[in-house]
Amino acid sequence: MGVGIEVRGLNAWYGKNQALNEIDMKVPANHVTAVIGPSGCGKSTFIRCLNRMHETIPDARAEGDVKVGEMDVYGDGSDPVEVRRRIGMVFQKPNPFPTMSIYGNVAAGLKLNGFSNRKQMDELVERSLKLAALWDEVKDNLHKKSGASLSGGQQQRLCIARALAVEPEVLLMDEPASALDPISTSKIEELIFQLKQHYTVVIVTHNMQQAARVAELTGFFLMGSLIEYDKTEKIFTNPADKRTEDYVTGRFG
Amino acid sequence: MPSIAASTSQPVSLWRRVANQGATAFAILTAVLVLVPLMAIFVYLLIKGVGALNWAFLTQTPKPVGEAGGGMANAIVGSGVILAIASLIGIPLGIGSGIYLAEYGRNRFGDIVRFTADVLNGVPSIVIGIAAYSLVVVPQKHFSALSGGVALGIMMIPTVARATEEMLLMVPNAVREAAFGLGIPKWRTTLSITLRTASAGVITGCMLAFARVAGETAPLLFTAFGNQFWNLNPNQPTAALPLQIFVYAISPFDEWHNQAWAGALILIILIVGAVAAVRITVSRGRLKGA
């Protein structure tokens, strides 16, 4: 089951450049929440702060209060490795491990975290690939083909399966369909819709139609600040802020 | 689209055809020029060496001066022992420092290590032999395969380290991010994901270093020293193919000259064989589309 996310007073920097200003945001469990905004507005930085991926970039740092379920992400003694294990992430470009088989890719997170029960692993791999709607396409080549041999859309679903296999509580997706063709995109969107039964999903997207299609809640970011955050329908039909309206109607961005 | 069709159906200008064929011919020529020296050496070795090559050469130890026959079996095995010791030293240390340089070495200390490795790469091999002599032979008070292995191992380190670093840096950052995103710790990511992704290139680097030191003679002169008899104890003076070739080649006897040629032929065959064996083993494990 998914858990909710509560962000309070989140600030993030790249060196001396502040990329996020005092973000407050409450993401409900088992919902899909979209984060939209023009390039460079801080939306990717924001979700990368949620699982402490932001700080893997040299000179980058973040401060603030982030609670994911009961877990205090930036609390004293919080381990970024443990945080990332519980909050899965799917990146903009599909990034399967190129030298591993399809099975190896999905099982990687389990294996490298010391999980060794072969039978349970087989089940988890199958379950994850089914959840990611890839099982039927790859089940005959699980061990024979490398992850890199799949098409772009299949690779992205493989990456989703890989993230799901470690059984996270939250799934973060950073423009997961922006490098894909329309058919693969619609498959991923359908999948996101299914995933919210088990997970809390936060998705960054450039594509406003996509946000409207998959998300119940939408946050609009501009220049490192969260301008407006509301039900998706409200954001797209009757936004409270003029800047949101300008953006969703295509007047800038 | 008629305009494109029209432009492609136009005859290609004479100049462009000539330039195209000229460039292709030049590329082929340079490729052939690269192959010629290797083939020339190999053919020449075959012609000169095959006459002295026989079963006795591969299975017997050298005969005393003046006696015909005998072989280099002890030198072949000795070279194997010395190279095994060298690889045990050079490959782990080289890969380890390559990992440090690529994954943690974006700092001053890393720059120093990088510079040191490049200098070490340029140190003449005889100087490395002297270093191994004073490090191992002098304290032990005797020559040994071990000291020869240390000398060659030291020579392997910078090549392996720099190759490993280059190959790890070629692994896209997205691969590391994917692993971090799964909650895999950095050390584990480096060993099981990044190094594994770069493994083909790292292995090539190791084989290059191996092939390079396999033919080294100078560092063995006062470390492994050579031996006319069987010796499998790594702590005793040991024969090595390049040493045996050297001694036989500068001798005044025709029979030994012929054996030196045969030894050189065997040395090349063994190096090519070892590199090919590793390549085949590695490519066996490769998956479709990887």
Measured as a percent range, the helix fraction of chain A is: 25-40%
| N-to-C span of chain A | 36 Å
Count of structural domains of chain A: 1
Order of helices and strands of chain B: HHHHHHHHHHHH
**CATH level 4 superfamily of chain A:** P-loop containing nucleotide triphosphate hydrolases
Strand content of chain B: under 5%
CATH topology of chain A: Rossmann fold
Summary tags:
heterodimer, A: 253 residues, alpha/beta, Rossmann fold, six-stranded mixed beta sheet, four-stranded antiparallel beta sheet, 10 strands, globular, B: 290 residues, mainly alpha, MetI-like fold, 12 helices
Descriptive account of the structure:
The complex is a heterodimer of chains A (253) and B (290). Chain A is an alpha/beta fold and 253 residues long. Chain A has one domain: 3-Layer(aba) Sandwich (Rossmann fold). Chain A has ten helices and ten strands. A six-stranded mixed beta sheet of chain A has the order 6-7-8-3-9-10, with helices on both faces. In chain A, helix 6 packs parallel to helix 7. The mean pLDDT of chain A is 91. In chain B, 74% of the residues lie in helices and 0% in strands. Chain B has one domain: MetI-like fold, CATH 1.10.3720. Chain B has twelve helices and no strands. Chain B is mainly α and 290 residues long. The radius of gyration of chain B is 25 Å and the shape is globular. At the A-B interface, helix 2 and helix 6 of A face helix 8 and helix 9 of B.
Question: What is this structure's SSE topology?
Answer:
The complex is a heterodimer of chains A (253) and B (290).
Chain A: E1 5-14, E2 17-27, E3 32-36, H1 43-50, E4 60-68, E5 71-72, H2 80-86, E6 87-90, H3 102-111, H4 118-131, H5 135-138, H6 152-165, E7 170-174, H7 182-195, E8 200-204, H8 208-214, E9 217-222, E10 225-231, H9 232-237, H10 242-248
Parallel strand pairs in A: 3-8, 3-9, 6-7, 7-8
Antiparallel strand pairs in A: 1-2, 1-4, 4-5, 9-10
Chain B: H1 2-9, H2 14-49, H3 55-59, H4 73-104, H5 108-122, H6 125-140, H7 145-170, H8 173-181, H9 186-197, H10 199-214, H11 241-249, H12 254-284
Helix pairs in contact in B: 2-12, 4-5, 4-7, 4-10, 4-11, 5-7, 6-7, 7-10, 8-9, 10-12, 11-12
